[in-house]
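Note to self: keep these together.
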Amino acid sequence: MERFHQSQAKVLVTECAAVLRYQMDHERASTKAMDLGSLLDCLVFDRRDRYRVVEVDWGVYASGPRKGQPREPSWANEAASTVAADLETKGVLPVLQKDVDALQDQADRARQRLGDMLGGRKRDTLPRVQWVSALGVECEGEPDLIWSDAVRMGTIDLKRTTALNPRAMQRQIAAMGWDIQGAAYREAALSLYPDHKYEGHTLLACQSGGAQLIETYTLDESYMVIGQTRWEQGQRIWQDCWRTGTWPGYTAFGTEIGPTRWLVHETLGMDEADDDLSGLGLERQT
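Structure:
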């Protein structure tokens, strides 16, 4: 059995075991958004060893209004694609200089925000941590940052996202499994600093596009409880899959689907604990 990651728990809890098994058996192709998020991590945490700017002979435009002018750097260039593929096999992120330039200002501001938050506290950036959970699962993770002083410590994760307003973040944290990540990284930090008081999991949220705002949100106790519960749910499914050798799909497929309680509460003004929709003028169509 391989080591368990928080990203796998997210798939098991929000998708199904069959989806995770497929992802484990097939290399996952990165997207442009994922690559830019990884690049922002590297710039903020000054990990120049993790990315490389690809420079090749980009050539010139052969026709059109820009004929004879240097071509814009692009992955459509065959030589650049070859270099990128080689870098990826070495675990290095290939990037274009224009992408670095586009993110540099925001990365500098995020780094300054970290400085304001942490002062002179010790920082472990992008550490690879291995530990055994309370359920006996061998886990592995790479928090963006674990900070510590003589008696306290906490975790910070950098997020590149489109919407930063608190209402959108409330939903996005659950949808993206960032609460699961918070619970897992708390365990990782406690495995390194067992005698320290844990001070919370904070999201350093950087807006992609627009005003490129930067906000910080610390998951409150209730969100950490939810994250811990989902983290443990994922571990139990993981253990069952390996024990039985089966990776089931969506067991509820084909059944009736109703709204979540929060949607009923928000739309119809009912108490979240009330499942009785009678008297609302809704009739079953026959």
